[in-house]
Amino acid sequence: MKVAIVHDELMRRGGAEQVVMTMLQAFPEADVFTLAYNPDGTYPEYRDYKITTSKLQFLSKSVKWMQRLYFPFGVMAMKALDVHGYDVVLISNTHSAKYVNIDSKALVFIYTYTPFRLAWNPTSYSQYNNSKGLSRWVFDKVVSILRKIDKEAAQRGDYFLGMTEETAQRIRDAYGVKDIKLIPPDVKTRNFHLSDKPKDYYLLVSRLEYYKKADLAIEAFNKLGLNLIVVGNGTKAQELKQLAKDNITFRKGLSSEELAELYANCKALIFPQHEDYGITPLEANASGRPVIAYGVGGVLETMIPYINDAAKSTAIFFDEQTVESLIKAVQLSESLDFDTNFIRLNAERFDETVFKDEIKKFVLEKYNEQR
């Protein structure tokens, strides 16, 4: 069985890029295809694989340029990317991976994190919300085109896989798909360790983009005066640095070991966004640390919320996406004693070995049925 794995782009270090690494553990002989690849921007493990890129590779040397050129050049480049001669094509996708040129005889599995955000949820982008007049008209035209081609490309999938029931419903709504196999993304627990003596800081690990709501955490910690370390980069980085007081520090470009140290020694991870899934809460749990999260989305399926026993919980949920609600949750966490080992066990339910075994079993089962 000859397998190709197609991913949107390999230019950053995110949860989706970690999932693809686990797909490669399940199918180590697979060939990898993607829109663009930056070895220095994503996980170093990808250097061990042969990666075929689209023609946009020559123009997109950074995430910023990849995004600027995505429509229409990225779409065109992915449609021209030749993925022929494979029995199985496993697509890891939010925006463009499913556009590639595939054999009609290939069995196609589409693992969708969420339908393309710009097409199906444009209000999650500040650029869209701030546009007016002619700019908004152009935006709406682009959104309309993207929605049409995105839905059309999705129809080539023989089997759909999703992360959670919430994201599965979005897939049904966007693409008209009925049957979706749920396999939650994995956390690589082996990369994280426990600490006996956490230090005096909270942690936020995120891309610094509008919908990630890092500004909410910064405003809350400006008022609390407690130490917060923000790890990540993005288009809002400079704006957020200007907003932050001296008790908030920013880090980026960390090694896996440096990030693991920050996780292990934090009081808790701050997770203020509505996320489709969220790998960082599980990474915090793998380090034995609790999460203070906005109680919607993926955390409802991965975290065990505090009700009346901190020793049997892995997270505190706050109900409103406001500074005041987050502050109350942080203040509550200061009075609770969590069980480090219990929290670690929760993360192990989502270990990479579980994901690897489940996706391999599902693909082989469907492939053998077709044969």
Any overview of this molecule?
This protein has 371 residues and is α/β, with parallel strands linked by helices. The chain has 2 domains: 3-186 and 351-370, Rossmann fold (3-Layer(aba) Sandwich); 189-348, 3-Layer(aba) Sandwich (Rossmann fold), CATH 3.40.50. 40% of the residues lie in helices and 16% in strands. The protein has 14 helices and 15 strands. It has helices spanning 15-26, 63-79, 117-120, 126-129, 133-154, 165-175, 214-224, 237-243, 256-265, 279-286, 299-302, 323-333, 340-348, 352-370, and strands at 3-7, 31-34, 51-53, 82-83, 88-93, 101-102, 107-112, 159-162, 180-182, 202-205, 228-231, 248-251, 269-271, 291-294, 315-318. The protein has a 7-stranded parallel β-sheet, sandwiched between helices. The chain has a 3-stranded parallel β-sheet with strand order 10-11-12, with helices on both faces. β11 (228-231), α8 and β12 (248-251) form a beta-alpha-beta unit. α10 packs across α13. The longest helix is centred in the middle third of the chain and has 22 residues, at 133-154. The protein is globular.
What's the gist of this structure?
The chain is α/β, with parallel strands linked by helices and 371 residues long. 40% of the residues lie in helices and 16% in strands.
Topology:
Blueprint: E1 3-7, H1 15-26, E2 31-34, E3 51-53, H2 63-79, E4 82-83, E5 88-93, E6 101-102, E7 107-112, H3 117-120, H4 126-129, H5 133-154, E8 159-162, H6 165-175, E9 180-182, E10 202-205, H7 214-224, E11 228-231, H8 237-243, E12 248-251, H9 256-265, E13 269-271, H10 279-286, E14 291-294, H11 299-302, E15 315-318, H12 323-333, H13 340-348, H14 352-370
Parallel strand pairs: 1-2, 1-5, 2-3, 4-6, 5-7, 7-8, 8-9, 10-11, 11-12, 13-14, 14-15
